[in-house]
From TrEMBL:
It comes from Acer negundo. It comes from the Eukaryota. Pfam families: LTP_2. SUPFAM superfamilies: Bifunctional inhibitor/lipid-transfer protein/seed storage 2S albumin. This is Bifunctional inhibitor/plant lipid transfer protein/seed storage helical domain-containing protein. Residues 39-99 form the Bifunctional inhibitor/plant lipid transfer protein/seed storage helical domain. Its main location: secreted. Transmembrane segments: none annotated. Belongs to the A9/FIL1 family. SMART domains: AAI. InterPro entries: Bifun_inhib/LTP/seed_sf, Bifunc_inhib/LTP/seed_store. PANTHER family: PROTEIN YY1. One of its GO terms (cellular component) is extracellular region. It is found in: Secreted.
Length: 101
């Protein structure tokens, strides 16, 4: 009888542990989704900087609006976006990017 109680207790503890892990993973996923949505919004705000980064356009110096938008973008958001963009051609079976100075 004691062995049965011990088994039931062990199974209950294991089930509780699985539930705790699932809740923690769900919370982490929600945090990642919120971070991704925030990054997307920050990057969308950079549209005001297009005249200063698109080759062939004549604007030389960014506006205050562009600088403010750039300042509001988290460092990791901007860097991860550049990394992803640089890897994208390879995933599309295109030659990798090679950029000069």
């Amino acid at each position: 009888m004691a062995g049965l109680k011990s088994q039931v207790s062990l199974k209950s503890n294991a089930a509780l542990l699985v539930l705790i892990i699932a809740v923690a993973m769900c919370a982490a996923l929600q945090a990642q989704i919120a971070s991704a949505q925030s990054c997307t919004a920050e990057l969308n705000n950079l549209n005001v900087c297009a005249p200063f980064v698109v080759p062939g356009l004549s604007e030389n110096n960014p506006t205050a609006e562009c600088c403010t938008a750039l300042q509001s973008v988290e460092h990791d958001c901007l860097c991860n976006t550049v990394r992803i963009a640089a890897r994208l051609p390879v995933h599309c079976n295109l030659p990798p990017l090679t950029c000069g100075n």
